[in-house]
Amino acid sequence: MKESTTGFDPHWLSLREAVDHAVRPSQLVPRFAAGTEAVRVVDLACGTGSNLRYLSPLLPARQRWLLLDYDAALLAEAGQRCSAWLAKHGRTDAVTLDTRRGDLSAGIPDAVIDPSEGGTHGQRPEPTMVTASALADLVSREWLERFADQLTTTDHVQAVLLATVYNGAVSFDPTDQDDQAVIDAFHRNMHRDKGFGPALGAEAARAVSTTFAQNWAVMEADSTWNLDSACRLRMGAAVFDRLLEFQLGFFVDAATAEGFDASAWGARRDLQRSRDQLTIRVGHTDVLAARPTNANPAGARRADTPSRIPTA
Ligand SMILES: C[S@@+](CC[C@H](N)C(=O)[O-])C[C@H]1O[C@@H](n2cnc3c(N)ncnc32)[C@H](O)[C@@H]1O
Fold first, then answer.
1. CA of 70 relative to ligand 1 center, distance in Å
2. Nearest-CA neighbor of 277 among 235, 234, 252, 241?
3. Mean pLDDT of the chain
4. How confident is the model over 275-304, as a mean pLDDT?
5. How many whole angstroms from 178 Cα to the centroid of ligand 1?
6. What is the pLDDT, as a whole number, of residue 307?
7. CB 286 within 8 A of CB 211
8. Where are the domains of the chain?
9. What distance in Å separates the CA atoms of residue 9 and residue 72, rounded to the nearest whole number?
10. Of 1, 67, 70, best ligand 1 pocket probe by most atoms within 8 Å of the beta carbon
11. Which of 2, 21, 23, 46 to mutate to test the pocket of ligand 1 (most atoms within 8 A of CB)?
12. How many whole angstroms separate alpha carbon 193 and alpha carbon 140?
């Protein structure tokens, strides 16, 4: 495939997909779909389509998906991979798939959440879920507030699912004298503008919950990555090691960009990684915002105990 223009390496997105799918809390999803026969799903910043491959089996059979990304190369990959995935699972009759190149930096383009966009399965527009995975830490507080306002006033949007939202809880086992300096630099670096204003970074999960809780019934569930020996067994050593290499590289590059020389830390961590002696935990939260009801008023609450990557 052609090189990505937004800077997100498709190889990295494939590596993280395996971990994301293992830890995402599936119990949040039926709260949107219960009792419905057909749904529409708008996946913002879809990358190569990981969110469809995770959510589609958890939703009612008839689905209409719109995948949106600014990056034409990733979007083309998403279209191909999701079409192949739907064919492989015998889902092409029940699930329709559109892709759209679009820039989210000024908010969601109105046409994207128009209920009649692309035709409907029945006479009336299906209830819509707007979703995005691994996006919220890239956006600013102001962008998030506008996004929530826009969705609050769009009646047919019944749920918003922001998945694998970084929550700042990162840790290493064993610990190292430079961990805190690296983590602090990583978090400072995350605030750099990615096209949406000063990025939320480690504040993303809390900001998403509190912003939506003003007008929506919000449920949070843990989707933390536990990159440990059990995860290595499950994913296979080669894929797991590549994932850890990428993740360590992100820490070292971010620290260097913030003026902290993390090369010695990176070398120590890499040696531990090669000996299967390193565990990294990267804290994520999935946040589902649903229209409030008497039984489920606006506000935020936890939905579960923390999920873990199952052992092989
Ligand atoms: C961390 S990746 C997540 C991809 C995918 N959702 C996943 O979970 O694998 C962030 C995505 O945001 C997209 N993106 C970045 N800036 C964007 C913008 N201004 N408009 C639309 N998409 C954008 C990137 O192209 C990339 O696909």
1. 7
2. 241
3. 92
4. 92
5. 31
6. 40
7. no
8. 10-168+199-226+284-302
9. 13
10. 70
11. 46
12. 8
